[in-house]
Design goal:
This protein folds into two domains: 295 residues, Rossmann fold, CATH 3.40.50.150; 145 residues, 3-Layer(aba) Sandwich (Trna Endonuclease, Chain: A, domain 1). The protein starts with 5 loop residues before the first strand and ends in a 21-residue tail after the last helix. It is built from 15 helices and 18 strands. Bound molecules: S-adenosylmethionine.
């Protein structure tokens, strides 16, 4: 087992950073937290045929609570920068209240709550950063101006390096303002010792700059020229990046995660502010773009996300892109079921999270109908769906495999219901995920029907799959393209 750090934590980054990450151990932090957009982000794809309502990946809404009052009061009693941070939060609170229009709109103080939560987390991020480390905070117009003040207070104004403007294009239906097509990435050094590897991120000069340099050496009579020599290694990119496009341009990377960022963006940040072998941390890691780019660039990495689905998705992403490296050293996972006992406890305590965990681990491309924990509404017999490209007679078909998760008893009727669902939604197969002692019922009830998975191979229409098999990553009995489902590649 090598000592390379490859770690995924499932949990609130506030607790994980406090409890598990050593002080002054991290070389680079990139964070892309929820932006206070007041949105609910759904997983994973837009629902074309409206058959299944997508499940929420995470909720980006904040409301001021009594707990926030207590924490704000605590901040005021502490040493700098907390009292300054409390002032920024209170400023946001006042501005929000002014905008609430004399009570016509509900005063949620959501921006203030968001800022207080972010400030608390950024403080613990600073604690784990080495003096030579850097931090990149990805945000947008919702809160970037307040977050910059928060970052100035925590990391000091003189350690501000850039506000990188990542601009992109895309459709928009705005009528009263210009389409909002850029994000801001606030780049701070932890101290004046922080690394910036400018030569590793150089890009070619523009054609006009090359032309100016060429003719600058050949002055016309009576005119003087300052001859500028372009660096043969290329130029350092400006602080606005338009050569990295919106996610939809990187089709072979797209995993369907709603706020996924392009690998090229993370590649540039990691190359600029870390060396090979350094430790890169992303506390809001989503579908794992940072850890993917870090692995690709031979850095060590830590990814944290509060969602079980995300954490499993990241694990799958790394396993399927770097099988040889990961087999040699493994990925440390904290906060997800590690054995059958853990899985049973999760299934009993929170059946909805158990479903999400199974779906993430099994690699569904689409989630089922239930939206909220405790939602009693029928799930239409579908907890998740695996979409597989299947080749038959030279043509590619997108086939669907329905996943049903049972944390408790499986009855003969549940197996029949799964068969009916498969027929109703015109899927090719159904998988019943359950604990080992329920597998007999699935085996006894399932018909021996098979479907054509291409190249003359037949697969069972209904199959049982135990939680034990899930934990040892035993593949489902599906065509081999199922194993290649998480294949985002780094762009050239
Ligand atoms: C904007 S997304 C990150 C997307 C990511 N950059 C990518 O390329 O996939 C924000 C993520 O933060 C996670 N999150 C929200 N609150 C969190 C918290 N307190 N601790 C850790 N993760 C959190 C959400 O589950 C979501 O996956």
């Amino acid at each position: 087992m090598s000592n390379t750090i490859r770690k995924l934590y499932r949990g609130d980054c506030l607790n994980i950073l406090r409890e598990y990450i050593q002080p002054e151990s991290v070389d680079l932090i990139y964070l892309d937290p929820p932006f206070n957009s007041n949105a609910r982000y759904n997983l994973p794809f837009a629902d074309k045929n409206k058959e299944y309502a997508p499940v929420e990946a995470f909720v980006d809404t904040w409301t001021w609570t009594a707990d926030d009052d207590a924490r704000l009061a605590e901040f005021k009693q502490m040493r700098d920068p907390r009292p300054t941070l409390a002032m920024i939060v209170e400023l946001a609170q006042r501005i929000e209240q002014m905008g609430a229009g004399g009570g016509r709109r509900k005063r949620t103080n959501s921006l203030a709550s968001y800022l207080l939560n972010m400030a608390e987390r950024l403080l613990v991020m600073k604690r784990v950063m080495k003096p030579t480390a850097s931090i990149y905070l990805h945000c947008d117009w919702y809160a970037s101006h307040y977050l910059k003040a928060v970052m100035d207070a925590i990391f000091q104004k003189e350690h501000f390096r850039n506000e990188i403007v990542w601009c992109y294009t895309g459709p928009s239906n705005t009528k009263r303002w210009f389409p909002r097509k850029h994000d801001s990435i606030l780049f701070y050094a932890n101290s004046k010792l922080s690394n910036f590897r400018r030569d590793d991120v150089r890009i070619p000069y523009s054609e006009s700059s090359v032309a100016r340099t060429k003719y600058g050496n050949n002055p016309t009579e009576g005119m003087t020229f300052t001859v500028r020599v372009n660096n043969p290694k290329g130029k350092i990119p400006e602080d606005w990046w338009s050569d990295i496009h919106a996610m939809k341009s990187y089709r072979n990377e797209i995993l369907g995660y709603p706020t996924q960022k392009p690998l090229a963006l993370l590649e540039r940040i990691i190359k600029a502010s870390s060396n090979a072998g350094d430790l890169v941390l992303d506390p809001f890691c989503g579908c794992g773009t940072t850890v993917h780019a870090a692995e690709q660039l031979n850095r060590q990495w830590i990814g944290i996300d509060i969602s079980r689905f995300s954490t499993e998705l990241m694990r799958q992403r790394i396993l399927s892109n770097f099988p040889a490296r990961v087999l040699a050293s493994g990925i440390d996972l904290v906060g997800l079921p590690e054995n059958v006992q853990d899985a049973r406890e999760l299934a009993q305590a929170n059946p909805f999270e158990f479903e999400k965990w199974v779906c993430g681990r099994i690699g569904v491309n689409k989630m089922g109908r239930r939206k909220q924990p405790g939602d009693k509404g029928a799930d239409g017999g579908i907890d998740g769906e695996i979409i597989l490209p299947v080749v038959r007679e030279g043509k590619v078909y997108e086939e669907s495999v329905v996943v049903q998760v049972k944390g408790g008893n499986v009855t003969p009727d549940s197996v029949k219901a799964l068969s009916e669902t498969v027929r109703r939604v015109q899927a090719v197969a159904g998988v019943m995920v359950c604990f080992t002692e329920q597998m007999g019922t699935v085996e006894n009830q399932r018909s021996r029907e098979t479907w054509d998975g291409g190249f003359g191979r037949q697969y069972p229409v209904i199959q049982g799959y135990s939680v034990n098999n899930l934990l040892i990553d035993k593949p489902l009995n599906l065509p081999p393209q199922y194993g290649r489902k998480r294949s985002g590649r780094i762009s050239a």
